[in-house]
Structures are given as structure tokens and as C-alpha cells.
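Objective 1b: paired records.
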Amino acid sequence: MTKVDCIIHNGTVLTINSQMEVFDKGVVVIDKGEILAVGDGSLLSDYDTDKKIDAQRGIVMPGMVNTHCHLPMIAFRGLGEEGIQDRLMGYFMPLEKELLCRELIYDATLIGTMDMALSGITTYADMYYHVDEMARATAKVGLRALLGQTVIGFPVVDAKEPYGGLAYARNIRGQFDKYSRVALALAPHAAYTLSADRLREVRAMSDELDIPIHIHIDEFETEKSKIVDNAKSLSVVRYLEDIGFLADNMILAHCNHVDDEDLKVIKEKGCGIAHNPMANSKGATGTAPIMEAIEKGIPVGLGTDGPMGSNVIDLFKVMTYACTVQRMRKMDRTLMTPDQVVHLATMGGAKVLGLQDQIGSLEKGKQADIVIVETQSLNMLPCHDPYAALVFQANPHNVRTTMVDGQVIMENRVLLTANMEEAKKGLEKWMPKIQALAKNLAIKAKNNSAAI
């Protein structure tokens, strides 16, 4: 028998491979951080280990991928829910302008990555500020991440000059060399908050440094009209194509208001879409034509958006929304079957991030990013269909084990890599200041809305 680092057995293994194979009493063999074999119980006679994980008839699946988030916003989760009209510009951004700093971003990211680990997310893509602090927190917990340094046309916490995020990203790039699971991206905020020339600078730097770009696209219906340099009055996607910005290393977040011609451009350029149905439903910002994108073969993954958008950073509710919103949009309950939705949350997300050769499915040679979801809690009974159970029944508390690169990050609901109580105290110290400012901002924002 071959000695290996770890064996997971006695679970329903959802491989999410090209054949979507399922092994009812499956086995996953792990060695040196990679998946060595996936199959039925017969594998147990070929391999031996000192670390054997009994899945106890649970669901064994690839770690989920959150393709769009603003994780440090977790410090402000639950604020600004009083019916403020312009919540982004009138509330979110003023809150960040007054309160964000390196320490808060680190403390909030630590809590957020712990939350993700406990809810079965092993990889996430973010766009925020001081992403070197985010990288430090993410590495501590042990997750995989693509962290986009924000570039925007006005001063922010880590850039005193407009568009200073470009220089900041260049300065911190070398710090990411020490992380095996965390990589840097460029995150121009949106087409309407950067000039055409600055967007071209982002594209040039991306090409030079060979790093991806993560950008908001058509989240709001009015974006096209807000682009100062859009003299031809093109759609947002066709404007970005026209200025030479689009390429195959891009994550396009939202795409709520793209049309069929836009989708053709996205497909041609090889971009991926980060779909955020829960945050967009809550914010009433629109519904992306995801069925059409999938039909065209565009990579699509799921995102939570920021914790001030959907209030959650797990993908279980998001999977439910991904299914139900598209069915309502098309008035067709046969669309978005549960297996398709789970594919979006795993392999779909991996493709959007360009990581499909490393993660997203349980296959020989891939990194061992694996989640076990128990099926014995009352909300999971009966579990006739594991895909349906994940999309319509499960919640983060059903996740029993989270593994990244073969390292067990969380086991039996216990986080093994960082101290949760210390992390809670780190975030709690900010609460009095946050709550005092938030109250004043809410009053101001509501008064401004009433005056319009």
C-alpha cells in the first residue's frame, strides 16, 4: 500500500469534473497538497495514511470560490439599512473615507476570512484598499485569494492622489512573493470612476506585470451616461473594448445591464463574469442575463459582493438566489438546475479567476481544496439529491471541514489556523467609533434623499 498524507472517505463525492461524476461512497486521496486519486471505496485497499477523515455520509466537494467581494466592509455590516437612496456614494464611501486605516482593514479581513473558512469558501477574489494588509490576514487563516488593489479617480485611504492605487500596487507587488496562496490583481473601480487614459494605464500595467484585472461593470443602469470620455455613447462593455481595455485576464463584476452584443464582446475577449444575485436583488440594482452568458460559453462564477451589499460572505444563500432569480427572470422553473448552480460556485468561479487548472474540481493533480458538508442535521434531512441539498437546504453551519492545499483549516467547526476570540476582540474595539459616525451619516443621507 502507498502511504499518503490524508484520505477522505465515507462521503458522497461531487467531483465537478467534466463528466460531473459522483461517487456515493467515495474516497479522495491527498498527498503533498494535491489530489492523488478520486474514486470509490476500492481505493482504500491501495493507500494508507495516518490522517483518515470520515465524512460520515456527508457531501465531499471542491472548496467554493467567492468571485467578488469587498471583505473589509465586514466592519460595517448591517449599517445603512434605513432606506437610504444613494447608499453607495451617500453612505458607503463617506463611511470608508472617515474610518478606514491599515489596522481596521487587517482586523476586518481576519474576521472575514475566518467566516469564509467556516462556510466552505476556500478561494475569494476581492477589490479593496491596503491589500497588503488583507494578504497578511488571509495568509494567517490559510485561504486562497486574488486581491485587487483599488484604483479610483479620487483620494482614498491608501492613495492621497487620484489613481494612486496604481503606484501602490506596484510598490507592494514584491510582498506577495512570500505567499503561496495569495496573489495580487489590479482593481480599477469602474468605467465611470476612471478616465479612459487611466484605464489604459491599468491595462498596460496588467500586461507588464502579468496580473489580472477586477472591475465593476454595469452594476447600475446609469453607468453608461456617467462615463465622461464616452463621446460615442457606447455601452459600457463596448466603450471598454473601444479604448483597448478588455482582455482575457479580467473579472467583470455584476454585468446586470449588458445586452446580447455586450455578451458577444465579453465572450470574444475571454473575460469572466462574477455574478452577485443576492447583493443585486437586495440593492435593487438589476438582474444579470446569466443564462444567456452561460449559453454563450462565458465563464461565470458567484460572488457575494461586499458585506454591506448582501450582508453575508458565504455562498449558500447566493446559490439559492442564483437559481431563483434566473427562474423568475425567465419564468421557467426548469432553468438553473442545482448541479449547474454548484458548478458555478466551484468550477465556474475557478474559471473566472483563471485557476481552473489548479482548483474547482476534485481531480487527480489538482490542489486539495476540499469541503465536507454534513447531512445529518435536521435541515439536511432527507438528502435525496446532494446538489439540491446544497443549493436549497444547506447553510454555513453544515460545513464540517475545510481544507486548502491539503492543509485542514477547519475541522468539526473548529478553526485550526487562527484564534477566533482574539480576532473578535480586534474588531470589537472599532465598534463605538463606527456606530457613532454611522448614525450621523444615516441622518445626513436620509435628509439628502428627502430633499431630492
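Objective 1b, second protein:
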Amino acid sequence: MELPPPARIETSRLVLRPWEVADAQRLKDAIDANLEHLRAWMPWAMTEPSELEAVALRIETFRQSFATGTEWVFAIFSRGESRVIGGTGLHPRIGLGAVEIGYWAQRHETRQGYITEAVKALTAVAFASPEIERVQIRCDPANVGSAAVPRRLGYTHIATLAADSLTPLGAPRDTMVWEMSRLAFAKRDD
């Protein structure tokens, strides 16, 4: 992206900001309390739980990537930052002029619209960069909750890639690809 995204994004109910090393225990607690939920969809969760020091190092890597513009990983907190809702990020791994939005939420924070709210904000942030022409969201077709997010926000389902990735347990799985173009973003009526 031409300019880095803001380091703090506030919505009506949420605060998105880079994880800080001081958040390491909160992040660890959120992951550890949701291992079964996360392992169903997130390959990175298969190596959890991690020691607190490893979580702190991971956060430092996130912060360095944010600062150098290679990737932008955000914590999702409740508005007063009293609760960790989950995590999200803008990932420039799908080609020039494009970013992918990834996300996860604690099990007890799902089905409340938090991820939709966070992704809506990140979509706007992505398109604030003039070089971004498209934003994608990718998910397992079996993850109905995750697939509902781009659908609600007006993304278009452009493909389902057959057996293009692996489940966290190593079995082949399909990937739904949702996309919003700059033109579609400009035409939306919300």
C-alpha cells in the first residue's frame, strides 16, 4: 500500500490497533481459551498453545511488519479495550494492487457482527490507498460464519478453488474467494 494504514481504527463498537507486547498475555489467553474453535479453521492454531515469551516475540514481529509495510496485523478490542474480540489484518499476498483481509474471533464473540464491523472498516482503509484496486477475503466453504462476512458487505464470490489448501489437520480443502473491486466499493450504498 502506498501509505500505511492508520495505527488506530475506531468503529461504533470496536478499536482496531496493532498488538502491543503488553497485550501478550491477553492474546495468549484468547488463543488458549479458543483452541478447538480456532483449530477448526486456522492452520496457525495447530501449533498453539505457545509460551508467553513466544507470543510476545510474535507480537514484535507483527509490529515490525506493520512499521516496514509488509503486513498490517491488528488486534480487535471492544470499544473500551476491556475485551479481546479477536484479530484481523491486511495481507498483501495476492498480487499487486490487492490485499487480503484475514480475521478470527473468540468463540463467545462470534455472531454479534464484530467481525463484519472490523472488516468493513479495513475494507475502507484498504481502498483509501490509491494503489489498491481489489480486496479479497478467503475462507473454507464449511466455515459458514466466516463466509457470511463478505456476503454481508457486498463482496462478490468469484471462485471456489478446489483442494487448493489444507485443513489445519492436513486434509485437502477448498477455498472460497470473495472480492470487492474499487469500483464496487465506490458504488455501495452504505
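The mean pLDDT is 94. The first strand starts at residue 9 and ends at 10.
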